[in-house]
Amino acid sequence: MSAFGTIIQIGDYLISEEVVLEYFACDYEKCRGICCIEGDCGAPLEEYELPLVERDYDAYSPLMRPEGREAVRQKGFFELDIEGDIVTPVTSEVRDCAYTHYDADGNCLCAIEKCFFEGRCAFRKPQSCRLYPIRLTKLTGGGLAFNLHRWDICKDAFEKGRREGIRVYEFLREPLTDLFGEDFYRDLCAAAQYVIAGAKKD
To answer: Distance from the CA of 7 to the CA of which of 39, 53, 91, 114 falls in 20 to 30 A?
Structure first.
């Protein structure tokens, strides 16, 4: 493990210092799940996730809107964005993620994750959704770059994180541990302390 300027290196992973310096905590009461609705395309999907999305479809599809099920019927379980990347399908009219679910109060949720919490499917939701506001980029040689993504619809989350003293990597402890292991998260915490201490000195 080593830190070089604005980059933290843990094995084959390169993590922007913003991941440990910036504050973030979802403020769902204000956003009401707008990240599942806004945007030009669906959420990024990894190839390994495609069979998992399809496998549990019968369990979570009843929670989806009819428009979402129609999008899956027409497009399949994924589509390609303008850059050729794999993303979740979006509905034709309002272009929200096909896998959205709306509760009685109009709050937007992930149908897959809701089904997961109800104990009826094993796949929780795409890792890109679980890791937000971190975005992963594959590096030549098999490594990954962890960068902070800033989206204006999440300004309340950045403000809440700062208000409550929750940094990005702390907010994402569970998905980072689930996806990359306890050793990775422990090393990230150690690197974070070093970087934060250095930033305070500056």
So the answer is: 39
Provide CB contacts within 8 A for 193, sequence distance 6+: none
Instruction: Detail the DSSP E strand segments found in 77-196.
Output: 79-80, 86-87, 100-102, 108-110, 134-138, 144-148
Instruction: Output the pTM of the full model.
Output: 0.87
Chain position carrying tokens 């930033």: 199
Q: What's the half-sphere exposure (Cβ side, CA atoms, 13 Å) at 144? A: 10
Average pLDDT over the chain, rounded to an integer: 89
Q: What whole-number distance in Å separates Cα of residue 70 and Cα of residue 193? A: 48
Q: Provide the residue ranges of all domains of the chain, joining segments of one domain with +.
A: 1-24+133-202, 32-131
* Contact assessment for residue 100 and residue 68, using Cβ atoms and an 8 Å cutoff: yes
